[in-house]
TrEMBL record:
Keywords assigned: Cytoplasm, Hydrolase, Metal-binding, Nuclease, Nucleus
Source organism: Plakobranchus ocellatus
Coiled coil: none
Protein localization: Cytoplasm; Nucleus
Name this protein carries in UniProt: Putative nuclease HARBI1
Residue stretches making up the DDE Tnp4 domain: 47-181
One Pfam assignment: DDE_Tnp_4
Cofactor(s) for this UniProt protein: a divalent metal cation
A cellular component annotation (GO) from this entry: nucleus
Entry-linked PANTHER family: GH03217P-RELATED (PTHR22930:SF85), PTHR22930
Amino acid sequence: SLIVKRTMNALLRRFPDFIHPPAMLDINRSILQFQEMAGFPNVFGCIDGTHIKIVAPPGNDEDVYVNRKNVHSINVQIVCDARLRILDCVATSPGSFHDDRILRESAFWRAMEGEPRAVPQGLILGDSAYPIREWLMTPYAQPINRQQERFNVSHKSTRVTVERCIGVLKRRWHCLHTELDPHY
């Protein structure tokens, strides 16, 4: 646990060097790369959440960390671009928090909703856990025609990028598969 703590502290010191809003050139490149995947236009990022198991925290708020699978966890929100680079990350939410809530309480939400918008124009793709916004597209829950079905296929083929990003993170940092103790 001491090695994990030292590693995380080292990463957090360098966090701004690697995780930051993309430059305009990067945005345009990402839009083209996402469009090449499945023809989905104007997408510069994808969003999803993932649960990281933790040891039950001491105290009265222990139950807020229990997720829908009855496991203690932190629900981590990731926004990535087409090259699997992390554009935004929120790793402070208890496991019981829904993806929608984490997004609405995040700095990323404020940047996307602000006037003027702090992030360049473009779309983010998310799964059905997220709200539909001018800048956030989700799939049709019940497609009723061929166009909606094609939209969902294109959406899914593009949004899988963030799932790959999370998979790469968890393979690279094997400790994310085990139960972490954030209190050390």
